[in-house]
Amino acid sequence: MALRLPRIGAGRRVHPDDAVDELAAKLADRIGPAVHPYEVAALLESEGLTGEAITEKYGHKDLFSLAEDLYTRVPREFPEPPGAADPWAPDHVRCALRGALFGLPGLAYPLTSGLWFSDGAVAALIVAGLISWAWSQGLAHRAYLRLASGRHEAGRTLLYGAPAGALLAAGAATVLAGPTPAALFAVWQSVYLAAAGVLLVFARERLLLATLVPVIGGAAVLPWVEPGPWVRAGLPLLTAVLVVAVAGRAIRAAVREDPAPGAVRPGPAVSLPYGLFGLGAGVLVMCAGLRHPWAVVVLTLSMGPAEWLLFRYRGLSVAALRKASTPAGFRAKSAAVLGGCLAVYLLPLAPAAYFTGAEIAPLLALAAVLWTALLLQAFGIAWVPAALTLCAAAGVGADACLRPPAGPLVPLLCCTAAAVGLLAWALHRLGRPTAHA
């Protein structure tokens, strides 16, 4: 249906029907979306049409008669509403920075390896790292819960939780390594991880990067300059002092804020599955590192893109929810979004594994476990990821202990089984529209 525009010659009297066509063409963009002639009548009133003009110029007895005529002449057009802003738009710089921050502390190991390496040193560092990883995961979750109430509550949680985790990890390493340089380095590792966790909770990534400058600079000159033992030991120590000072300042500033009235303190059991997942993930990554150390580097650096894709999954799922008209349709769109995000995460890891000499299939299976578990945790689904990750870690860890050196078959089977289970659970739970509403 098209509007007929009247042709009016000079000196010719305008026919009422032509005048109505002209008015319809003029107001078509505002009459088209109307769902009732009364809306058109309100529009005409806002245009200031008088009863005399309606009768003499347009040939209608009243406003409502003209409105009904215009409503009939103009075809219905309902323009799409403007697209809503993505509530889950990721911060590209922050995600990239967090990925780098997960990997850059590893430069302290080649910088200081000649100072602490001895029998039992690696085992002590692994145990301390696993304790720190598990504790930090649980503590970070609890701190984020408290942060929802206020910065004061989160600050108090970190004030007591971060030192406790560092003491626990450092104590375990000291028991295993004894009074050796390896124990001192384990203390450094534990203190750094605890303080870094504080800064990450408070979104102080740039400050954390600044504290790593001494270690980064020292490691950067190693291929050309031998800095000597004092510099090798002093630069990580300087980083530890800086990161503790900055973390302490962040906690102090948070604790000084006014407490939130009526804040509820969640029980420790709420954060327990997050800590257990951290333990299981740590075992899987450590076992992969024992076979191929560069595999740990690849996985660590991939955590930045992984976090970015978690945001993209949520944003794309919300967009799919707006477009879907049935639960089944949304379930199909949700599965496509999940598969696409996982594929985008895994595909770059294949050439990275190839060039670093790591087995591609086990690394991709492990990466799928980590990303899918993190996705479920982002939706508050914690126990299933923790259980499946721990089961995979138990199988891989037992194989590494009972049949050293461990081959790639058991890690591949265990991680693949865990990844399939996590994906199935994600499709089941996240394929519901209510999960994204």
UniProtKB/TrEMBL annotation:
Alphabetically ordered keywords of this record: Membrane, Transmembrane, Transmembrane helix
Stated name of the protein: Integral membrane protein
Lineage, highest ranks first: Bacteria, Bacillati, Actinomycetota, Actinomycetes, Kitasatosporales
Keyword check for Acetylation: no
Membrane spanning residue stretches: 115-136, 157-176, 182-202, 207-225, 237-255, 267-286, 334-357, 363-396, 408-427
Keyword Methyltransferase appears in the UniProt entry: no
